[in-house]
Amino acid sequence: MSIEQTTIHQEVAAVYDYIVSLRRHFHQHPEVSLKEFETIQRIKEELDEIGIDYIPVGETGVLATLRGGKGAGKKILLRADIDALPLPDQTGAPYASLNPGANHACGHDGHASALLGAIRVLKSYQSDFAGTIQFAFQPAEEIGAGARQFVRGGFIDDIDHVFGIHLQSGTALGKIVATPGPSNASCDIFKIKVHGKSGHVSRPDLGRDALVSAAAIVTELQTIVSREVNPTDEVVVGIGVLHAGTNYNIIANEADIEGTVRTFSPQVRAQVLAAVERIAKNTAESHRTTIEFSNYDAAAPLINDLAAAEHAFKVAAKIVGEGNVITNAPKRMGADDFADYLAVAPGVYCFVGTQSDEKTSYDHHHEKFDIDEKGLAIAAELHVSYALEYLQNPF
């Protein structure tokens, strides 16, 4: 099999309007995590029209399969997440969200449409390659619950290689990021419930103040990064929620703390989580209160395979030129559950730039986030080229 890059480029250009139309449809009809019912229905309709077999994964996921016409070979998985955020849409675009309080403010509308465009092109090459390409249209990336439906369900146990793309407003249009090694941090979401004893504030000695205890816990947790972790390790311990009290003259009976731990190392991750629970427990005891601690494992550290990153660089260079491929991008403390796929098979997660002006410069998760849609063509071409190159020359 030898397909010229110019041919792939032309094939993607031919479906560009289709990709943009789909992206704008998804953007107008966003659905938040685990509620992507209309989104996945539209994806199924497109797969039916293209002629691709698929099976459901959970309630709002799909795994589609394209088998090459030249016999058995390696199996590669291409992934697109499809969920939106619980956020108003303030883009003012003609394709702005029609669903109040929901917004594709992270680019997942583009991920789904670019992958569907890539499938149309790959379908036309079906007779030219050996092996199998599978396509995961995954829900609930934003809450770290979607990839594990595919992984824990055994749907990708026999996959040899995985590949994913994220559009990126912080990167200029026409550039692709292919970074070897750690790329995105892990994400743990912890909750601490502090139990005290209510009473009148005029007699604090008769109560056990959960509010003061919680405030002390929040302060003490800040010492983990500065005093318990090697300074060369990148770690975040962040607190986003602190709720306590019902009235100005009542000692708080309970308090709630919610926060997150982000790291790039499984070992450091375990160390920091243990420290969070220990410090919270001991601090609470010093204030005559108790705690309940729980943690939600949202995503592991995302660590790209070195050989896969090199492969991605070579493929991306054919599309945008070597000078426009970034291989030394800073690591991101933002998490992505594509890491769950990388725990099953080697692969790489690339970023495609979509910023070209002020309108497309807003950060992900901002109410005005938008993309330069020309980046969708680059993403689709990268999907197609990476898959075909891997099947021809697996490593």
UniProtKB/TrEMBL annotation:
<keyword id="KW-0457">Lysine biosynthesis</keyword>
<feature type="binding site">
    <location>
        <position position="166"/>
    </location>
    <ligand>
        <name>Mn(2+)</name>
    </ligand>
</feature>
<keyword id="KW-0220">Diaminopimelate biosynthesis</keyword>
<feature type="binding site">
    <location>
        <position position="106"/>
    </location>
    <ligand>
        <name>Mn(2+)</name>
    </ligand>
</feature>
<feature type="domain" description="Peptidase M20 dimerisation">
    <location>
        <begin position="190"/>
        <end position="286"/>
    </location>
</feature>
<feature type="binding site">
    <location>
        <position position="142"/>
    </location>
    <ligand>
        <name>Mn(2+)</name>
    </ligand>
</feature>
<dbReference type="GO" id="GO:0009085">
    <property type="term" value="P:lysine biosynthetic process"/>
</dbReference>
<feature type="binding site">
    <location>
        <position position="365"/>
    </location>
    <ligand>
        <name>Mn(2+)</name>
    </ligand>
</feature>
<feature type="binding site">
    <location>
        <position position="108"/>
    </location>
    <ligand>
        <name>Mn(2+)</name>
    </ligand>
</feature>
<dbReference type="InterPro" id="IPR036264">
    <property type="entry name" value="Bact_exopeptidase_dim_dom"/>
</dbReference>
<keyword id="KW-0464">Manganese</keyword>
<dbReference type="InterPro" id="IPR017439">
    <property type="entry name" value="Amidohydrolase"/>
</dbReference>
<dbReference type="Pfam" id="PF07687">
    <property type="entry name" value="M20_dimer"/>
</dbReference>
<keyword id="KW-0479">Metal-binding</keyword>
<dbReference type="GO" id="GO:0046872">
    <property type="term" value="F:metal ion binding"/>
</dbReference>
<keyword id="KW-0378">Hydrolase</keyword>
<dbReference type="GO" id="GO:0019877">
    <property type="term" value="P:diaminopimelate biosynthetic process"/>
</dbReference>
<dbReference type="InterPro" id="IPR011650">
    <property type="entry name" value="Peptidase_M20_dimer"/>
</dbReference>
<dbReference type="InterPro" id="IPR002933">
    <property type="entry name" value="Peptidase_M20"/>
</dbReference>
<protein>
    <submittedName>
        <fullName>Peptidase m20</fullName>
    </submittedName>
</protein>
<dbReference type="Pfam" id="PF01546">
    <property type="entry name" value="Peptidase_M20"/>
</dbReference>
<dbReference type="GO" id="GO:0050118">
    <property type="term" value="F:N-acetyldiaminopimelate deacetylase activity"/>
</dbReference>
<keyword id="KW-0028">Amino-acid biosynthesis</keyword>
